[in-house]
Recover the amino acids of this structure.
């Protein structure tokens, strides 16, 4: 039975996605192949020209032999149509190395250290250090150097660790390739999945929709193949490719050789068998991009955290000249105030920002991986997850289970007609068979399954392999149809085109209509009637496929899209795809958390609207992508903003909509798993896909879910919000106290005849602050808070965690001024205490008094601005509480300890402490009051 055979084939192939099998690499390497770069050397020894010699325009040097027939090329590469043997592959792997683009290996600890010197804050600090050294202010220069080294060590150490755990996580979702290899010389070829890095030159691979092209390859066979090669050429539309046995004039030196596919591109539609001709550093991609070409678009993380960082850097650069000018104008001082001016700028720097950001995000990511199996591939994406306010979803497999079953097949009048299903099965069978698709589409599987079950009841000829397959144009999401060309038994000299696909697209290619055993012309009225019939079925939640056929005289040449015209419309196959059980609740949770959901689907508007309604998401106005063709930018975002469903979207439509939403200021997430979702995954702030998505989606996504379950997204969102909340809390607290200190320092500098703070004191104080603030990175949310809708006060669960630069700067100005007021009050108190107790009141007492006050106010700010009624740690004592306690103890005891005089401090009189307590009480009350005012509109 053909369909049982088909069942065996489909159950053993393809292997479960994501399964990776490491091969054992044989250590002994025969002499003849162990010379470095063997394959290339062998080619060069035989005088074969390669792209390496041709130096393509883009600088590429793909190492691809040109001007050879397929057979010559295979001979040169010691390969054949049946692929390499395992032994050959292992030898080549040892000789040529893994198929990895060199720049993509993770950097060493030392490289990371040097890299962290390029951080803008570090660079500014270094400049200030150089200025200090230039004017021989060695104390300040040393302080700055210590700060730079401490922050670089912490940062590179943290990044190195985060990088390693991220790499381990990414490994879990790494790409695989379908390779055809043999156990030994006489053994038959077997197709299996291997990690992409294990591919070698001479391997024969299979490509299907959604596969990444894993190396530079030459096509041996191709069926309806189109590839996206935006990463290489910037061309956003898929490019057709075909196998050429003897490319005329060595087509490889053309910018677009049709018979070659390059690493970095991905299959949009169709399938192919191909020969690997270059791997790793020899690929055209490696030559063009020595290092990873990561994200192209600015994400929410760049906009918020980086935005704030750059605003600060501008302030830092402005501070020294302002201080110099103020001192010159008001006190007549000259360049001697430069060290002080530099110290003020240093005081403003949140030098721990990169450390806190990396550590916080890395902890969040590993906790997500542990508890929910969610893999964050790019750390800042976790921040962006927390900031998402619009989430776009595809329908199939997200709202529904993507396990369609055939409900009925109908003729053009809407009556039951098993013959329509049979023709759909002929199409499914022969497109799968001839296009050698690595994985059958769920709709094709459902149709073949349904025919198999009904076969027994049918007359001879029910079996779709009854016809002979001639050619196939597999389904592609742009044309939305699949075509099989078959020869029917007894009809010599004739070919039959069998087409199935989306109703509108098939109907557009039909000129006639089958009804009641005859055929008639298809007029506009009939078209409207058929579209209406389809809409009625779709409104019942069914997925519809239209089926059509055409008879043609037999011919030898290849078939193309232009041949699929003048068809006769046969009828519909209606399939039911059950709703995902948890989708309804998850949609409700997302709405409660302030996330607007948009469904961008390739399916019929009726089917999508019904699925939404059944899940409790009111679809409102249902749009189709062609209604939006003329809109762009803000108008497009506005139109989509009003709707919940946009149907009949192509890959480009999805990407356009996501981009427009982002441009209009929304932090946009996109969840999808198909080839038609890739451009949108890339265009979004956060691209999310399930682990069993097509390879190319998995590679393009920032976040990979264990399964396509909306509940998991909800959890990921919470952890993202908690992490962003921690980063925001760090920024709020650090910057408001730093700003306060800077204002106080400036005033003290103008009021006092001595330096208000010595370089060593600036250093100790900064180090104490930095150490205490590390607690933010380690404030792990309890599992209960991470999973419950009521998250934290710093990251309200019902609001996306977005840092808006302006609101944020307003916030730190208010709290900074409050802090400065406390400092100024302390100066008054110090003067009063000195006066009353007739103490000397010299600089040492002032320094000690201010040091204590600074650390205590910092501790209060950490406690009050971070924690509300509920904290990220719940009510338990967490790292933040410990850090606050330690700061307070150091602040009070250090100036009194033997270290005090070493740092140039001497104990203030006891009265000072009593007065300070009063100042701090007032400050605490003011902080609490202003915080309450801000609670409703947090920056
Ligand atoms: N294998 C196939 N053969 C023929 N037509 C198909 C096939 N698969 C899908 N179609 C048609 O193309 C339409 C669009 O499919 P596409 O894959 O772009 O979107 P989808 O997967 O249905 O929706 P979503 O974007 O929500 O995942 C489907 O509604 C269906 O009519
Ligand atoms: Mg899909």
């Amino acid at each position: 039975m053909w369909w049982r055979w088909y069942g065996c084939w489909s159950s053993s192939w393809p292997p479960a996605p994501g399964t990776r099998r490491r091969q054992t690499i044989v250590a002994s390497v025969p002499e003849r192949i162990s010379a470095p770069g063997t394959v290339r050397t062998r080619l060069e020894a035989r005088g074969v020209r390669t792209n390496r010699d041709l130096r393509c325009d883009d600088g590429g040097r793909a190492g691809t032999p040109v001007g050879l027939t397929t057979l010559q090329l295979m001979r040169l590469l010691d390969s054949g149509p049946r692929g390499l043997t395992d032994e050959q592959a292992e030898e080549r792997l040892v000789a040529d190395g893994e198929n990895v683009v060199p720049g993509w290996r993770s950097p060493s600890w030392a490289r990371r250290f040097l890299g962290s010197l390029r951080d803008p804050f570090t660079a500014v600090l270094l400049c200030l250090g150089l200025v200090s050294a230039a004017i021989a202010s060695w104390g300040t220069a040393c302080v700055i150097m210590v700060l730079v080294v401490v922050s670089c060590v912490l940062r590179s150490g943290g990044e190195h660790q985060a990088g390693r755990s991220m790499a381990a996580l990414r490994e879990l979702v790494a790409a695989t390739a379908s390779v055809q290899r043999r156990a030994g010389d006489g053994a038959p070829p077997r197709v299996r999945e291997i990690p992409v890095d294990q591919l070698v030159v001479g391997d024969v691979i299979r490509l299907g929709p959604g596969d990444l092209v894993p190396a530079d390859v030459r096509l041996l066979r191709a069926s309806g193949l189109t590839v996206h090669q935006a990463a290489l050429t910037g061309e956003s539309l898929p490019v057709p490719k075909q196998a050429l046995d003897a490319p005329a004039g060595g087509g490889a030196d053309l910018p677009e050789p049709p018979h070659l596919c390059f690493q970095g591109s991905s299959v949009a539609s169709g399938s192919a068998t191909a020969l690997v001709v270059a791997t790793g550093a020899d690929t055209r991609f490696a030559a063009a991009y020595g290092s990873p070409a990561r994200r192209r678009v600015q994400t929410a993380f760049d906009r918020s955290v980086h935005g704030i960082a750059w605003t600060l850097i501008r302030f830092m650069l402005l501070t020294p000249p302002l201080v110099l000018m103020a001192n010159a104008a008001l006190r007549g001082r000259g360049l001697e105030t430069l060290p002080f001016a530099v110290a003020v700028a240093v005081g403003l720097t949140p030098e721990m920002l990169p450390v806190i950001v990396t550590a916080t995000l890395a902890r969040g990511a590993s906790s997500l991986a542990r508890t929910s199996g969610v893999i964050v591939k790019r750390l800042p994406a976790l921040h962006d997850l927390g900031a998402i306010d619009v989430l776009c979803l595809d329908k199939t497999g997200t709202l529904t289970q993507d396990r369609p079953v055939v409900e009925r097949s109908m003729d053009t009048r809407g009556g039951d007609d098993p013959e329509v299903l049979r023709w759909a099965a002929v199409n499914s069978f022969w497109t799968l068979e001839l296009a050698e698709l690595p994985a059958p589409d769920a709709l094709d599987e459902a149709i073949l399954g349904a025919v198999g079950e009904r076969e027994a009841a049918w007359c001879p000829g029910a079996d779709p392999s009854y016809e002979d397959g001639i050619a196939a144009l597999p389904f592609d999401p742009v044309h939305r149809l699949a075509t099989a060309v078959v020869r029917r038994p007894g009809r010599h000299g004739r070919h039959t085109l069998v087409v199935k696909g989306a109703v509108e697209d098939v109907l557009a290619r039909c000129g006639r209509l089958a009804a009641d055993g005859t055929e008639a012309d298809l007029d506009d009225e009939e078209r409207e009637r058929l579209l209406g019939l389809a809409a009625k079925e779709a409104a019942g939640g069914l997925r519809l496929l239209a089926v059509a056929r055409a008879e043609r005289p037999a011919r030898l040449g290849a078939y193309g899209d232009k041949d699929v015209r003048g068809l006769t419309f046969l009828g519909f196959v209606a399939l039911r795809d059950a709703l995902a059980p948890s989708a309804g609740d998850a949609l409700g949770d997302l709405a409660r958390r302030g996330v607007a959901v948009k469904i961008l689907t390739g399916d019929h508007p009726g089917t999508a609207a019904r699925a939404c309604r059944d899940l409790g998401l009111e679809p409102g106005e249902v749009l189709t992508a062609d209604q939006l063709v003329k809109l762009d930018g803000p108008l497009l975002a506005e139109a989509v903003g009003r709707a919940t469903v946009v149907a009949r979207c192509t890959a480009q439509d999805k990407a356009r909509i996501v981009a427009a939403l982002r441009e209009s200021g929304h932090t946009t997430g996109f969840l999808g798993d198909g080839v038609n979702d890739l451009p949108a995954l890339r265009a979004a702030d956060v691209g999310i896909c399930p682990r069993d998505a097509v390879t190319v989606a998995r590679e393009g996504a920032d976040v990979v879910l264990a399964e396509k379950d909306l509940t998991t997204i909800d959890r990921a969102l919470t952890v993202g919000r908690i992490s962003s909340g921690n980063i925001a809390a760090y920024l709020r607290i650090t910057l408001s106290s730093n700003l306060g200190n800077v204002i106080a320092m400036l005033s003290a500098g103008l009021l006092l005849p001595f330096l208000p703070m010595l370089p060593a004191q600036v250093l100790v104080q900064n180090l104490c602050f930095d150490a205490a603030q590390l607690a933010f990175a380690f404030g792990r949310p309890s599992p209960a808070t991470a999973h419950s809708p009521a998250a934290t006060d710093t990251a309200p669960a019902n609001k996306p965690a977005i840092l808006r630069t302006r609101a944020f700067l307003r916030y730190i100005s208010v709290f900074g001024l409050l802090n400065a007021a406390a400092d100024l009050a302390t100066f008054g108190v110090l003067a009063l205490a000195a006066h009353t107790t007739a103490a000397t009141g010299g600089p040492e007492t002032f320094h000690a008094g201010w040091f204590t006050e600074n650390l205590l106010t910092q501790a209060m700010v950490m406690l009050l601005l971070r924690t509300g009624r509920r904290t990220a740690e719940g009510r338990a004592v967490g790292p933040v509480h410990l850090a606050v306690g330690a700061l307070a103890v150091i602040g009070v005891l250090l100036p009194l300890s033997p270290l005090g005089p070493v740092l140039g401090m001497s104990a203030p009189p006891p009265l000072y402490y009593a007065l300070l307590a009063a100042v701090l009480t007032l400050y605490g009350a003011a902080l609490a009051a202003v915080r309450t005012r801000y609670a409703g509109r947090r920056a």
